[in-house]
Design brief:
heterodimer; A: 19 helices; B: alpha+beta; 2 helices; about 35% helix; globular; disordered N terminus
Chain lengths: ~375, ~60
């Protein structure tokens, strides 16, 4: 969004219609904000009524220019303040979604869809929000049913990509004994393939990349290593083409993490190194390129270079993200040095995780580090 | 399901954190206030405008 959408002159017409705020969720000073506005995935966008600080609209995930333009057009607070009608019901569902209670949000969005008239313009946004909420509440059967219902209705729209990806991921999450599991996976794989093949669809390159990830999940579920490898090669080629089309260094760098994942998937992490070194030269203060270089060198078992890259990332990192860098560092140290050094780093990571302020502190991360520590004893 | 979400969503928010870097990130055409909810809320109240918030991370 920052590299591709917020830089586009066509949205400047909205500049005076909102007050614009960007919150780096990794910064400790924004922990209070995170407590007030729970954020479960990034990016998340909120339109907030300044009178009562209630969320009028919450959108999880990226948007293309058209989606953002539609979101900003009109009076986004009108429905919430009017308090009746389908748009007011949607505003209520959004406010529930804004609290992070996904089960309640799913119920509220379902109620909106149940009442929505045919050809209601809010359908795509509502169904995407419902699918996200369901995906977070361990309700794969319901998620599969909603996605299957939505796909024909969303045909030709960017949201069809999300419906296919959520549907496929939810189908994979169905119990192995579910009678429709195999059929549903096949259907959603086909749908995801159709979306990828339709180059006229206005779907952001990063969302297309997400479809490849969903498809890889299905191949992995089928234990199809040959199919996985072929798909990962296709994914890497797609990402390389998109990166080559980038007009600015930050547009190109957007593709770095998925390219790294694709190269790791095909067993060729060395292909990530020139790309990450370039990004490091372009953005020397950014901790991401050395953090990713550490992962690439780890994949190659080039331990001194992996440790040097990890040192560089650690020196620049901050916030909860630093814990992921710690995690990779611990594995590198355990492989390259000895377990005493790795154990010391792990203890340091736990201290760091426990010192994060509420809103950034993650009990599940602390628990997983403690579990890891128990293995070193 | 969360892995997929991470995959889809993590890519989108990636903008290099590049203070002092040779290549500055592309400039937004919208006048974003950075990391100051109190200030943005006060402005929104004074100007009677909705508050648009992007919650992101530099990864």
């Amino acid at each position: 969004m920052k590299a591709f959408v917020f830089t586009d002159p066509s949205i400047a017409r909205h500049a005076g219609r909102f007050v614009w705020l960007e919150i780096d969720t990794e910064k400790a000073k924004n922990a209070t904000f995170r407590r007030q506005f729970p954020v479960q995935a990034l990016p998340t966008f909120f339109i907030v009524d300044p009178l009562d600080e209630q969320v009028a609209i919450r959108w999880v995930g990226g948007m293309n220019l058209g989606q953002l333009d539609r979101l900003l057009t009109g009076d986004p607070l009108a429905a919430k303040r009017r308090g009746r009608g389908i748009d007011a019901r949607l505003a209520h569902a959004d406010s529930v979604y804004g609290t992070g209670d996904n089960a309640a949000a799913a119920t509220a969005y379902q109620a909106v869809l149940d009442e929505a008239p045919e050809n209601w313009p809010g359908y795509a946004r509502t169904v995407e929000a419902l699918l996200y909420a369901l995906s977070q509440t361990d309700a794969p059967e319901k998620c599969v049913a909603i996605a299957a219902q939505a796909l024909p209705r969303l045909k030709g729209q960017p949201a069809s990509g999300s419906a296919a990806a959520y549907g496929l991921d939810c189908a994979i999450s169905l119990p192995a004994t579910h009678p429709d599991r195999g059929r549903r996976i096949t259907e959603f794989e086909l749908a995801a393939r159709e979306v990828l093949a339709d180059t006229t669809l206005e779907i952001a390159a990063d969302d297309r990349s997400g479809l490849y990830i969903a498809l890889l999940g299905a191949r992995s579920d089928a234990r199809d290593s040959i199919g996985s490898r072929a798909l990962a090669r296709e994914w890497a080629s797609f990402l390389e083409r998109e990166a080559a089309r980038a007009r600015t260094p930050d547009q190109r760098a957007v593709f770095d993490p998925h390219r790294l994942s694709a190269y790791l998937e095909i067993g060729e992490p060395e292909r990530a190194i020139p790309m990450l070194e370039q990004t490091q030269r372009d953005f020397p203060a950014d901790y991401n390129p050395p953090a990713r270089l550490a992962v690439a060198y780890q994949g190659l078992k080039r331990w001194p270079e992996a440790l040097a890259a990890s040192d560089s990332a650690m020196a620049r990192a901050y916030g909860p993200r630093k814990l992921r860098i710690y995690d990779v560092r611990i594995d590198i140290q355990a492989a390259a040095l000895d377990s005493t050094v790795a154990k010391r780093t792990l203890e340091e990571a736990i201290q760091y995780a426990e010192a994060l302020p509420a809103g950034q502190r993650s009990e599940s991360t602390i628990a997983s580090f403690r579990k890891k520590l128990a293995r070193f004893r | 399901m969360k892995n997929l979400l991470f995959g889809i969503l993590s890519l989108i928010a990636l903008a290099p954190a590049a203070a002092g870097a040779p290549s500055a990130p592309a400039k937004s055409v919208l006048p974003f206030i950075s990391d100051d909810y109190t200030k943005a809320l006060a402005q929104a109240r004074a100007r009677k405008l909705p508050l648009f918030i992007e919650a992101w991370a530099p990864w």
